[in-house]
Design brief:
Strand order of the largest sheet: 1-2-3-4
Strand content: 5-15%
Number of strands: 18
Number of helices: 39
Helix content: 25-40%
Shape: elongated
Radius of gyration: 49 Å
Distance between the termini: 83 Å
């Protein structure tokens, strides 16, 4: 270390010019004293000492128990000079004055005297004798002269009791040749020589001055001398001193310490420490960081700073004076303690010189052994780094700083000077001294697998020494030096000396750097920023990646350096704190809880995080023969402790900073273990206190672990290079990057809660376990390499992400964190989850609720569907919409900075496909317990059709809510629909059955493999712009994790996708497009009804009630009267054409434009053969039939015998509405009898095809209308039974029973023998209304566009749907007809006759087997519980209630006794 000697007290000399040249005992009245001139305010420091703790009032008899209050007199001798004026520094040497040095000395002793005055108010004025002669002489002679003058002055001082008063004398001296900063051997002669020159002065003081405490103050680094003056210097300026050996920072610091220690040892063992009334103590002054001789800095500015540092040094025990001098930092004044109230001498400090107290130790053996059965290399030299075994490694190298160079690794305890030595052969990552049984290093471990390993370092020396080989670490280097090290390493590997096959040999290179960067961070935060640190590592890795073939690079994370403070602060542990503090000032100087320390800790973490992100970007995985793997065993380091609980210094070199041999062995073990651990499961906290255990490679997977070969069954690999957050925290959700996300949360049901994810196959009971840590949207178990979840993906961008769940447990458990999903939860309970989540976020100390950006995933609806059939009103789509909206409204209102993922629920069809498709693997017998409404309906049943309709309505609710723009009103909040769950493609086994391995043992909940795919799909969706989001998930596909791009770095929202939600086209009319070909009639008029083609029909007619007269098909101008729009009637209306009005006659017009009988308009005169009457009941059908027959017989347009007639009969609604008034008159038997009478009358007509349409389910028609109908109209006034049944469950069940009996009773007509006797007549029952499904709008409520104003009759749209359903039924074979209506808009739903089946279907041409024709129609599954009257009804209701109780018990798993 080279120092320029400096002069302090800037500006002090001009202040003093013109003042008197000698100390005067008195001043004239009104004049300021010299000390007042030097320290005019005398408040340049704050006195905080408690004088009560400074000791007793009795004066001390021994210098070794001398208290500040005992001091009566203060003096100083030596040359302390002010800084020269910078303007004259290069000018001709100014004339020498006799005031500067003496007055500068006075500035220091005056401040010291002022401090002492707080302890002893009678302390006398300090003295600094001039002591110079006209003829120049040496500094030692000048000191002796000053000493004599001082003694004379004290003897003559009338206020001083020379024999009995205690005196504090400061002897200031300097070294100008800087030999004091050379190595120990050079220092010895320098210190001895200096002591010889001081001996005369000290001896004189010892002999002449009783009761004196002498500070020997070395100002070599503080004051120096001006270039034109040679003052009190112990060596002339012209005397050169060239230091040999190491000139690194470490060597300079060790030299500083050794210099101080030499003086301490010399004085402690001298005669000056043997007296009771006299002592000499060395007081060193070293800068925090030594300045270069060429430096233009002049750090010392005032006497107070120097005096306070000197005082504080006096307050420290000898041998522990380790606080460096801070020229520009005004430190608080230290105080004597109650335990140590005296000034410290060598005796009362119990000083033991370190340099002569080196402990001899026997040869250290830190070796171990490895017992691996497989130590063989690969059968052939691998070509992929991902298939690399330990024995395949042929070359080893390392880059880094002194921790890799091995500084002090082999030093004896206490031998601080030996820390210079670089024990490269002991280096943890590349040393090769001895073998594994004596020295544990990575190289020696690898030599157990390949004894021919090359490149390891041996012995001691620098990077250029012969034994360094490929250990090219350089002591003192920082990250910025790594590129040069990498270049030198490559050159050495290519050099023929080591006989390395550069192209073919596999190489291990370990890079470890960062300690020195952190230690100096506070000096230049910009230079040592995480960005620069990472950039420098990147440059070095880029060189290796570009030029080194077949290489496995270990990038060891920088250690958690803050723990060094624990060792430094423990005074019971002997450490050279001067060295330690100067080696790492930014870590050790900062006060606890200071902003500086917090900044350092944050930078330390960012160093670790940034290097991790650099490597995980995939930047170095572009070649098959090269990879870089982050080894994190140093990431979290606990200070090893002794049995007494103190920091164990045996793990450190004598300087307490570098590693000892023991730590090198542990580091080698930690690195080796990391190399064999899969990425994502690597140890991040190495236990230095445990015994070293060298693990063996896994026999099933013996390769060194890389990012690619570490990805296990449920893990993923993220190859994103840009993982940086925004330059500043974004204020808009539309400019949100993945790395900006700080909090993750989730709401929902058992799918989000994680039920059964980790359950073993067949362990059905374990499905109740909530594996929240594995949940795709909120789990944080493991890492991305082992568990693919959204949080684990986001943690690759921000390792400080919080909110994710771990392990198992309920929503209330600590592990759940912000995963507040509850198994079995329905949409109604979602708002409660939101409120709980909001409160948890506010209470969480790790969440800055207002500033942190949050991703919240919401998925709900599955449990609602599972219960839909038990209460279709409670679980209606309208209610689902309202509950979901309420929950999202709370989030929108209360949560700042949030992006909400709204995810679709699992389609019931997927559940059914898996559960019912594998009866041998799934618990089919418990279907009603798990999800009754989804799993129990039969195929093609009414219940299943209803389930599919409500599912679509639920999904429409999700879309409508998001597309409404309701949640895009704030800049920091948005809800985005992620549609990946909309269509699930299940993998099938070879036998065609679904692969149940993707599911939990209940075959309903997704397993971990399924959750992994969900997480990948959700992540991909989040980065896809709206309008281009994937809405299909193939569970067998290899879904690659997408990356943000430079042009599209944000999570996608509506705005940053530049997307506009599609608008629905306006529907102008309810017509249909006719796509049938081959419209021609039969070649000749058919004689058989069983060969009747649509084009053969000449006449249409209809019987019925208001639904056939089309009451209310269009809105009425009158609020009291509904108009009959007969021309729009589904079965017989003929207004305009099919393109604008879909009716059965308009369809038939496409086959025969001359068809007759249809009605038009609203007038009775244009009713045609529509004989239906408003309010008609079944009892009116015979009369209508008679009227129709008469009209046909009397019509001149009809050839009664030749024309084929199509007659539609539809009746029963009014009978059901009035059933409760007279059950006997409106019984099913009477209903069937009246219709039979009508059919008997129609049987009189030749060539007739009669459609009998089953009455609709009246009760079902009202479901989901949510009270939005006009109550004064027909629904209330004309349907009293229906109104009453709504208030009475038993009456409703009875009405449903009667409704079903009506349908069942007339279903026989297709099979009745009497209507099958003639070839030209048939009756066909059309059952499309058998299972009436309420048409739903996109929000899940009743779609009132299908209904008239009274909500009981059909609108024009409803009539169109009825016409389509009737027509399609007519073309379907008997026994295979559609039994439900499909209320979805399409102009192309009309079926067409086919060449194979060109006829309208009758029983005979449907080729229905005879036995089936004779059998009863199938009983609908939904009516089984109420199929029987009385007791059957009770049993049915009881069954439903019991089923619900059992399922609730299972879901809540409260006990096993349910």
């Amino acid at each position: 270390m080279k120092l320029q000697l400096h002069i302090f007290l800037l500006g002090l000399l001009p202040l003093l010019l013109g003042q008197q040249e000698s100390i005067q005992a008195h001043t004239s009245p009104g004049e300021n004293t010299l000390e007042e001139q030097l320290c005019p305010e005398n408040q340049n420091f704050q006195f905080l000492c408690d004088l009560k703790k400074s000791g007793s009032d009795a004066p001390s008899k021994s210098v070794h128990s001398l208290r500040p209050s005992d001091i009566k007199f203060m003096a100083g001798i030596g040359d302390v000079e002010t800084r020269p004026d910078p303007g004259t520094a290069d000018a001709e040497k100014p004339p020498r004055t006799q005031t500067g040095p003496q007055q500068a000395c006075m500035g220091v002793v005056t401040v010291l005297s002022d401090i002492i005055r707080h302890f002893n108010t009678s302390v006398l004025r300090p003295v600094c004798p001039l002591g110079e002669r006209e003829v120049p002489h040496s500094g030692a002679e000048d000191l002796w002269t000053q000493a004599k003058e001082l003694v004379k002055s004290m003897q003559e001082n009338q206020q001083l009791d020379f024999q009995n008063d205690w005196k504090l004398i400061n002897v200031f001296f300097t070294n100008t040749n800087q030999c004091h900063l050379c190595l120990f051997t050079q220092q010895q002669s320098n210190v001895t020589g200096a002591m010889d020159k001081l001996t005369a002065t000290l001896d004189y003081l010892l002999q002449e001055v009783p009761k004196a405490f002498v500070n020997l103050v070395d100002l070599s680094e503080v004051v120096g001398v001006s270039p034109w003056r040679q003052g009190t210097q112990l060596s002339p300026a012209a005397e050169p001193c060239t230091c040999s050996g190491d000139t690194s920072k470490l060597s300079k610091l060790v030299a500083q310490w050794a210099y101080q220690e030499s003086w301490e040892h010399l004085l402690a063992s001298s005669k000056y420490n043997e007296q009771e009334s006299f002592a000499v103590v060395f007081q060193p002054f070293f800068y925090e960081t030594a300045l270069s001789p060429l430096s233009e800095e002049w750090p010392l500015q005032d006497a107070t700073t120097l005096a306070l540092n000197l005082w504080n040094s006096m307050m420290q025990p000898a041998g522990q004076k380790d606080e460096p001098f801070h020229a520009n930092e005004r430190r608080l004044m230290k105080c004597p303690s109650q335990e140590n109230p005296y000034l410290f001498t060598y005796r009362n400090s119990n000083y033991l010189p370190t340099l002569t107290n080196l402990r001899e130790k026997s040869e250290v053996r830190d070796g171990t052994e490895i017992r691996c059965r497989d130590k063989d290399p690969s059968d052939t030299i691998p070509t992929s780094v991902h298939r690399l075994k330990a024995a395949d490694i042929k070359v080893i190298g390392a880059l880094g700083d002194s921790l890799t160079a091995g500084n002090g690794a082999g030093s004896k305890p206490g031998d601080i000077l030996d820390v210079y030595t670089q024990y490269r052969g002991l280096s943890w990552s590349v040393g090769g001294d001895g073998n594994l049984s004596t020295t544990t290093t990575l190289a020696n471990i690898l030599r157990e697998f390949n004894p021919s390993l090359k490149g390891f370092s041996v012995g001691t020396g620098k990077e250029s020494s012969p034994g360094a080989f490929l250990n090219q670490a350089v002591a003192g280097n920082v990250a910025g030096h790594l590129p040069l090290q990498a270049r030198r390493l490559i050159d050495l590997m290519k050099n023929s000396t080591l006989k390395i096959n550069f192209q073919e040999d596999w190489k291990i290179i370990t890079m470890f750097i960062g300690g020195n960067d952190l230690c100096d961070f506070c000096k230049d935060p910009a230079h040592y920023s995480p960005q620069n640190f990472t950039d420098n590592i990147r440059k070095a890795l880029d060189i290796l990646h570009a030029e080194v073939p077949r290489a496995f690079v270990n990038l060891v994370k920088v250690l958690e350096i803050i723990n060094l403070r624990e060792l430094y602060n423990e005074k019971k542990v002997s450490c050279p704190r001067l060295i330690l503090r100067n080696l790492c000032p930014c870590v050790l100087r900062s006060e606890e809880n200071s902003t500086e320390l917090a900044a350092l800790i944050e930078v330390n973490k960012k160093y670790q995080e940034a290097t991790h992100q650099l490597v995980e970007s995939g930047r170095y995985d572009t070649r098959e023969d090269f990879t870089v793997v982050v080894q994190p065993f140093f990431e979290k380091v606990d200070m090893p402790k002794t049995s007494e609980g103190l920091p164990d210094s045996s793990f450190f070199a004598p300087d307490c900073f570098h590693f000892s041999r023991k730590s090198h062995a542990h580091a080698a073990s930690g690195l080796w273990t990391n190399m064999l651990e899969p990425v994502g499961q690597k140890t991040t906290r190495h236990d230095f206190e445990s015994e070293i255990d060298i693990v063996c490679p896994n026999e099933d997977w013996p390769f060194l672990r890389t990012y690619k070969n570490s990805v296990q069954g449920h893990g993923s690999h993220l190859l994103c290079q840009d993982r940086a957050p925004s330059a500043s925290p974004p204020t808009s959700v539309h400019s949100l990057r993945p790395a900006d996300i700080q909090v993750v949360a989730a709401l929902g049901d058992s799918l989000i809660a994680g039920n059964g994810i980790g359950s073993k196959p067949g362990d059905l009971a374990d499905v109740t376990t909530q594996y929240r840590g594995l949940s795709y949207s909120a789990g944080g178990d493991g890492s991305l390499e082992t568990v693919t979840t959204l949080p684990n993906i986001l943690r690759k961008f921000n390792s400080y992400l919080t909110g994710y769940a771990l392990g198992t447990g309920s929503a209330n458990s600590t592990n759940a964190s912000l995963n507040q999903a509850v198994p079995g939860a329905k949409a109604e309970e979602l708002a409660g989850q939101v409120q709980t989540l909001v409160q948890r976020m506010k209470d969480d100390q790790g969440v800055n609720f207002h500033e942190d950006w949050k991703v919240i995933t919401v998925q709900i609806g599955g449990s609602d569907l599972c219960d839909y059939c038990t209460d279709s009103n409670l679980y209606s789509a309208a209610n689902f919409f309202a509950h979901l909206r309420n929950a999202l409204d709370i989030l929108h209102r209360e949560v700042p900075r949030a992006l909400v993922n709204l995810v679709d629920f699992m389609s019931p069809s997927v559940m059914r496909q898996v559960f019912l498709g594998s009866p041998d693997k799934c618990p089919v017998q418990q279907a009603s317990v798990f999800c009754n409404c989804v799993l129990t309906p039969r195929e093609n049943s009414q219940e299943l059709a209803r389930l599919e309709a409500i599912t679509r309505a639920y999904q429409s609710s999700l879309r409508e809510l998001v597309e409404s723009g309701r949640y895009d009103t704030r800049e920091d909040f948005s809800v985005v629909l992620q549609p990946f769950f909309h269509n699930i493609r299940l993998p099938l086994l070879e036998d065609g059955r679904p692969d149940t391995s993707l599911f939990a043992p209940d075959c309903i909940h997704p397993g971990q493999k399924f959750h992994s795919q969900l997480a990948r799909a959700l992540w991909v969706n989040m980065l896809e712009p709206l309008g281009k989001k994937t809405d299909t998930l193939d569970l067998t596909a290899d879904v690659a994790l997408s990356c943000p791009t430079q042009n599209e770095p944000f999570l996608r929202t509506l705005r940053n996708s530049n997307y506009t939600y599609p608008t629905k086209p306006t529907i102008e009319n309810w017509g249909s497009d006719f796509l049938c070909t081959g419209w021609s009639p039969s070649s000749s008029v058919p004689a058989s009804v069983h060969k009747l083609r649509p084009a053969d029909i000449k006449v249409v007619a209809a019987l019925g009630d208001a639904l056939t007269t089309a009451v209310g098909a269009r809105p009425s101008n009158s609020s009291d009267l509904l108009v009959s729009w007969r021309g729009l009637s589904w079965s017989v209306g003929g207004d305009e054409a099919l393109e604008t009005h879909t009716t059965l006659p308009n369809i038939l017009k496409k086959f025969n434009p001359q068809i007759f009988g249809f009605s038009t308009g609203t007038q009775e005169e244009t009713a045609g053969l529509n004989v239906a009457m408003e309010g008609a009941r079944a009892r009116d059908m015979p009369a209508q039939a008679r009227d129709l027959v008469e009209r046909m017989k009397n019509s001149s347009e009809i050839n009664l015998e030749e024309d084929w007639k199509l007659i539609t009969l539809f009746i029963g609604g009014n009978d059901l509405c009035h059933y409760c008034e007279n059950p006997e008159a409106y019984s099913a038997g009477e209903y069937v009898r009246h219709i039979q009478q009508a059919l008997d009358i129609l049987y009189e007509l030749p060539r007739a095809f009669v459609n009998v349409v089953q009455v609709m389910e009246l009760a079902g028609l009202d479901q989901g209308q949510d009270g939005k109908c006009d109550t004064p109209l027909a629904a209330q006034s004309n349907c009293t039974c229906f109104r009453r049944s709504q208030e009475n469950m038993l009456e409703m069940q009875e009405l449903k029973q009667v409704n079903w009996n009506f349908q069942s009773g007339i279903s026989w007509f297709s099979y009745w023998h009497q209507y099958r006797q003639r070839e030209d007549f048939t009756v066909v029952v059309q059952p499309f209304l058998q299972n009436t499904l309420v048409p739903l709008n996109e929000r899940g409520g009743a779609d009132l566009t299908f209904f008239s104003e009274d909500c009981l009759h059909f609108s024009e749209r409803g009539h169109a749907e009825m016409a389509i359903a009737l027509w399609n039924n007519m073309l379907e074979p008997v026994g295979h007809k559609t039994t439900s209506n499909n209320f979805t808009y399409s102009r192309t739903k009309l079926k067409c006759p086919s060449p194979e089946r060109p006829y309208l279907h009758t029983l005979r041409n449907s080729r229905l087997p005879q036995d089936q024709a004779a059998a009863d129609p199938a009983v609908l599954s939904w009516v089984v519980p109420v199929a029987a009257a009385g007791g059957g009804l009770v049993v049915g209701v009881g069954t439903v209630m019991a089923w619900r109780a059992v399922r609730r018990c299972w879901r809540e798993h409260l006990s096993t006794s349910c």
